[in-house]
Fold this protein.
Amino acid sequence: TRKRKFWTASDMFDGADLPQKITELRTHAASLPPDIKIVLFMNMVTEEGLPMFTRALALGLEPKLSALSKWLELWTAEEKSHGQILDRYAFVTNLFQMTAVEKYVFEYLRIGYNPKWIYQPYATIAYALMQEAATRVSHTNVAKLARNHDQLLQKILSRIAGDEEFHYQFYLETYREIINLDPNTALEVASSMWPSIEMPGAAQANFENYARVANQLKVYSLPQYQEIVTKVIQLLNIGSLTNLNDVGQKAQSAIMAIPNRLEKISERIHISLKSKTFNTDILFGNPQIILPGA
């Protein structure tokens, strides 16, 4: 097992000098454009969803199985640090209207998350594999955007992305073993899960607008998901699997067709986009955000 350095949210801040550095930190954070603040906010909300994701994974992974139980405990502990550090950064830098942010997170958790894959171990792993990859991509891309504004934020997001990469690799290798042991069922499940990944929060105010900002900045959208699916298909050698029954062969063909399908959907969505504006109360002054059309 690869050893990784344990880190905490407090490691990112020099506690002794923090009072003197707050002004500097706030100056750097204030230089972030509104659209970068929005995608950072969305990443933060995702990490604050830990209670929902832990519940869903616990039901899906059957933690009575000792190996998966130990993994889930480690995963939960590490993910806790992600939400903690982003919340602390936002508070210290006075980046957001925190009352509005906390209300949004409360509603996000109150609505809950009951995905179709609960109680299905294979589907749970198939989902978690893609979700971890998506989260890693999103944090990595926001870190790149933050680089010229705030090096501390870049460091925080890069550290989180490193954890997400480790989690992604765990689920990737786990699904590889599932395919080795039960290829036909594994492919059938993947073919139903991977055309899209269901994320909580879609019913909340401005969710679609925030997602369009992420798409506009190329932080995370269908093209990024297409790249993830394509890479996973290659890494798991889906196209070269043999000795499959009819169910497995049908699922294999369906999986191999997902990247092209996603590309066509992405093109249709892009063409249909119309320019619009929206206001968001998570930022001071409730500014108007412009979303350009196709």
Q: What stands out?
A: The mean pLDDT is 91. The chain is about 70% helix and 5% strand. Strands lie at 276-279, 288-291. The longest strand covers residues 276-279.
